[in-house]
Amino acid sequence: MGSADPEGGRLPPPVKPPDGGWGWIVLLGCFVITGFSYAFPKAVSVYFKELMKDFHVGYSDTAWISSIMLAMLYGTGPVCSIMVNQFGCRPVMLIGGLLASSGMILASFTTNIIELYLTAGVLTGLGMALNFQPSLIMLGTYFDKRRPLANGLAAAGSPVFLSSLSPLGQVLLEKFGWRGGFLIMGGLLLNCCTCGAVMRPLDVGMKRKKEKVQDKYEAKEMLPIGGKSEEGMSTTDGTKKAKKAKKKPKKGKKLLDFSIFSNRGFIIYTISKFILVLGLFVPPILLVNYAKDTGVPDTEAAFLLSIIGFIDIFARPACGMVAGLKWVRPHVAYLFSFSMLFNGLTDICSARASNYTGLVIFCVFFGISYGMVGALQFEVLMAIVGSQKFSSAIGLVLLIEAFAVLIGPPSAGRLVDALKNYEVIFYLAGSEVVLSALFLAMATYCCLNRGKKKEPPPEQNPSAGGGSDTEEAESDVQEAEEHSSDNHQLAHSTDNAVVVASEEANHVAEEQSREGGECPKGDGEVLARDGCNADQTTVERDSF
């Protein structure tokens, strides 16, 4: 994500995150991107009835549009990681914003459902994926101490945009039809390009360039003017060129770092997240139909999702603030386990809710627990792998989650069709979430906390996107040693030039003293001879 060092041919070491400043603008951009990525596939559902009428298809056919968007968001994670590691976050996000917008604009001119799958589904989904992942990477680059709070605030974009885009889509549908609505929604997605433009990488190369130029300038100022000094400078430059020629070329950065699979914490997190996704999204998907089957009117049943979204807006930043506390942050994995356990028990306890009041209570607690999970999921991953390997880690995690997304909700829908009983589905979904919470907590305690006492602490990778940690560390040490050696040789050449010039001046002064018997005058007067004024010689020696 940083620019390459032009002289060394490698990425410079990362700068300390500012935890503020321009980072707040980056946080705002991440807030918008997160809102579009998670809320847009759900907000498109308001157009499904009109699409069913125009294309003469069923609800399951139109529902594939949202499913394809989510599949692209999760399944293209490794592709996003490779592009970010190769080109950086800002270019990838600009391309993603253009793809997302062009997908919806082209969808407004489609004539069949297959074209909608390719435009609104594949193209727009890919564009949002190319925005979502780099925005999280940049957020981890700009924040360290305040990173839990930043993640919580960014995650709040999902419920905020969900509560905004759905009513907006309904208004656009009534006034302009679904084609006009798709066209305007495509224009709104161009804001992703604006968010990508503000993702300014931290400039780390300018300071080192200025220091090198200043060192060369000071070295030239220290050397006296003369043939010997020029000879010393040419010798030093020749030595530097020879060392640069002998220096081994730096290996390129890995496009996708699979070494994170050697991290036990990452393996535990991935398994736990896969189990979690199997049941996490099932209750909100089936909630409205479940309420209708219990006799709740349609308008009141739809309002249940609004309750979850409203609670979620405040739960995510609040949980981020709690996770940022000094005594909580070292144990953020356990807080994440608690939030999953809270969510699973909420599903299990509400399985027998038979009236509207019970469903409202379920929505309140589900909104709190769901917001906690959303605020902590990426914070825990950053804490496990570090921000330098986060670009590869999140891509692989999202790919694995894509399989769970394709397994969990569709399987729950088939069970509902077969059993005609929502109670069993809520029990099953809650059990999966509870199992993921227990697995994460127990595996973290048994495999990680106990292992820390036996294993040495892992080395930190100074680069920002994969590559070999050991090779980069050795290269940094080698460069530091060579830089120190060059400075020492330059100083030594300077001293030699000064000594040579002084000896020549003394030799000339000695010859003139023998021939004329007078005290030498000029810049060469260094040593006192017979017949010279001692005070004058002392002053001249001091001035020299």
From TrEMBL:
Positions with biased composition (Basic and acidic residues): 504-528
Keywords per UniProt: Cell membrane, Membrane, Symport, Transmembrane, Transmembrane helix, Transport
Membrane topology reported for the UniProt record: Multi-pass membrane protein
SUPFAM superfamilies given in the database record: MFS general substrate transporter
Pfam family, one: MFS_1
GO MF annotation terms: monocarboxylic acid transmembrane transporter activity; symporter activity
InterPro entries from the UniProt entry: MCT (IPR004743), MFS (IPR011701), MFS_dom (IPR020846), MFS_trans_sf (IPR036259), Proton-linked_MCT (IPR050327)
Location (main, coarse): membrane
Residues annotated as domain Major facilitator superfamily (MFS) profile: 23-448
Region (Disordered) location: 227-247, 451-544
Transmembrane segment boundaries: 21-40, 63-84, 91-110, 116-137, 181-202, 266-291, 303-325, 332-353, 359-378, 390-412, 424-448
Stretches with biased composition (Acidic residues): 469-479
PROSITE patterns: MFS
Chain intervals with Polar residues compositional bias: 487-496
Compartmental location: Cell membrane
GO cellular component terms given for this protein: basolateral plasma membrane
UniProt similarity note: Belongs to the major facilitator superfamily. Monocarboxylate porter (TC 2.A.1.13) family.
Protein name as annotated: MOT3 protein
The organism of origin for this protein: Syrrhaptes paradoxus
